[in-house]
Amino acid sequence: MILENASSFFAWDVSSYLAVFLILAFVIVTVDHFFMGGATENAPSTKKYLLSKWLYFVCFLRLDKSEKYLHRSKVVQLSAEFYPVLLLVFLLRGLVAEPFRIPSNSMMPTFLTYDFLLVDKLSYGIHLPILNTELVDFGDPERGDVVVFRYPNYEKQKTYKGADFIKRVIGIPGDKIEYIDDKLTVNGEAIEYQKIGIYKGYEKGIEMTGYKRYREMLGNNPHDILLHPKGASRNVKLVVPEGHYFVMGDNRAHSSDSRFWGFVPEEYIVGRAFYIWAHGDVGGIFSSSPLKALKTFSFSRNGVID
User: Fold this and answer.
1) Which residues contact 89 (CB under 8 A, 6 or more apart)?
2) Block means of pLDDT (10 residues each) for the chain, length 306 residues?
3) Do you find a cis peptide bond into 109, omega within 30 degrees of 0?
4) Cβ contacts of residue 286 below 8 Å, gap of 6+?
5) Strand ranges (DSSP E) for the chain?
């Protein structure tokens, strides 16, 4: 399946809600400042060029550093106070780096369920926040990169509307891919595998104990994978179309990936996962065993990703 069948990229997420707040705050303060008397009572104490004044206003909702909103309504005050901080968060998330939480076992052993990652959004270019429209191109994903992307959702399933997935890039545009009996061949070249041993899982991944662990020597990005001890996972033979990528999870027998639902459009790639910064079942704090969930939280897995 290719781009023409993919669902819309836009989805309501943290960045979308931040954008709504920023727009509302900007409108509220602008109306108050220029139409409700705020400009007269809050006249800037120093003169600046008009362009610099407006630039400062867009960033801080003030025309001057000394400008205060203490005499205005609470709504205006709160909008003006929170706006600069949330604008910074919005720009950092949208342009530089975004946090991501691993929701399943599909990328074991590289990631464990409940790992917290940072996604580099500048790896492949500068993109317009929310819409992900590319403004400046820095390059393309390479084989072996771990990427976060908006799930193409070719079949328009409501459950996955706007969902973000994380997988490893196995095939780039034009590649001829064969994955037969858990052995990968790219453009006619068989990828080397190094046996590591038997995997021992824990927490949510304990069911993977006994799986076979191998080192897959894919180009400049070798990485560990898990294989089922009693049989091979799904086979495929295909050619990756232009503008799309073929992705798979490192836990090959437990991954919903391009072998099942098709290719990832380049436009849907959010960024490259590059760092594990924490691990823990934060959502479990609201479960019946909050103390057990808190015990799983740690920084022991901090590190750069293979």
Assistant:
1) 18
2) 85 93 95 72 53 86 78 89 96 95 96 96 94 94 97 92 96 98 97 97 92 96 96 96 97 97 96 95 75 82 89
3) yes
4) none
5) 97-101, 115-120, 125-127, 134-137, 146-150, 164-171, 176-180, 183-186, 189-190, 192-198, 212-217, 223-227, 236-239, 244-248, 264-265, 269-279, 303-304
Distances (CA, A) of 152 to 2, 120, 164, 262: 9, 20, 9, 8
DSSP label at residue 78 = H
Helix (H, G, I), strand (E, B) or coil at 192: strand
Say if CB 214 and CB 225 are below 8 A apart: yes
Contact between 208 and 226 (Cβ < 8 Å): yes
Measured CA to CA, the distance from residue 107 to residue 162 in angstroms comes to 20
- Cα separation of 2 and 18, whole Å? 31
Instruction: List, in order, residues 6 or more apart from 295 with CB less than 8 Å away.
Output: none
Catalytic residues: 106, 167
Contacts of 84 (CB under 8 A, 6+ apart): 59, 60, 61
Distances (CA, A) of 119 to 147, 152, 222: 8, 19, 19
